[in-house]
């Protein structure tokens, strides 16, 4: 079932540092521009704050939603009279481990925030007309009266970007994410359709995106931090992603989840969106590096007519760096296609069975999984 394109506004404000007081002031103003927190949540509700907790990493890596953003939003939720929970389906580790790595676990607990480690799941019907009939997602998500989504502005080697729509893939318990990659295989459009339906299974009431320091290059775990100096908020994830995509110097039709919104007639061009606060054009960097997979026909896969014999030479693929590989086997354990073996304590990828989901790159704690361009990518530079 198609939804009408949103007319929900997007609020965008400059924020040049992660100073707690500054971040809190900017987020309060963003929410006020949108009508105030009471427009989105009510007293006595159970509200789940859902950051990007890919894996336990230090804040300097720009992989996780910044702790200053998390603290500010949790304070606003508590001030509204709601019960505040925080959690995410981390690829590695859990919510508690991520918060401890960010250094705010004790501070959140002292405020009265409940930390939820996604473990128990429930089966939920998918939206009508979707690719799948149901999803198995974290019970904590469905038990919440409302979800506030806190994505990090990052690139993504498979989906090109991971913003508000993609961030709700964290509704899936981390250990079960690989199975969804395997179902989609190398069909990135199919994976995007799944992400889109999952998002609307439990649509967040508010999305607040951390773009103060974003990630470019081979994200979501092995890219490079880039200061973009903004925070953004909106009730509609499609609109938030659309504006951020333009700031990233990309076109919405290149982004798989936005292309799905276009296919369903649920996309609004940036020129027709109601934007509050600052102009998005003021945050576009002089240059922005997308993932290497972008050159491979916008997604890291080759058309079926090339055949399996030719495909490995054309598409990008994960390539473990022997000098960095610690032999921890995290990549092998998460690989949905079982395409990784340990040879002499070093990870090796079978290019014939690899489905280019790049889960291994996301999971590698040592940052040892490089993206190796296929022949086409090397020719195009």
Describe the structure in your own words:
The structure is a single chain. The model is unreliable at 297-310 (pLDDT under 50). This protein is 29% helix and 22% strand. The protein has 14 helices and 16 strands. The N and C termini lie far apart (42 Å). It folds into 2 domains: 10-283, 3-Layer(aba) Sandwich (Rossmann fold), CATH 3.40.50; 292-380, Alpha-Beta Plaits, CATH 3.30.70. Helix 1 crosses helix 2, helix 7 crosses helix 8 (188-201) and helix 8 packs across helix 10 (256-263). The relative contact order is 0.15. It has an 8-stranded mixed sheet with strand order 4-3-2-7-10-11-1-12. Strands 5-6 form a two-stranded antiparallel ribbon. The protein is of the alpha/beta class. Strand 5 (121-125) and strand 6 form a beta hairpin. It is globular.
Write a brief caption for the model:
The chain is α/β, with parallel strands linked by helices. The chain has two domains: 10-283, Rossmann fold (3-Layer(aba) Sandwich), CATH 3.40.50; 292-380, Alpha-Beta Plaits, CATH 3.30.70.20.
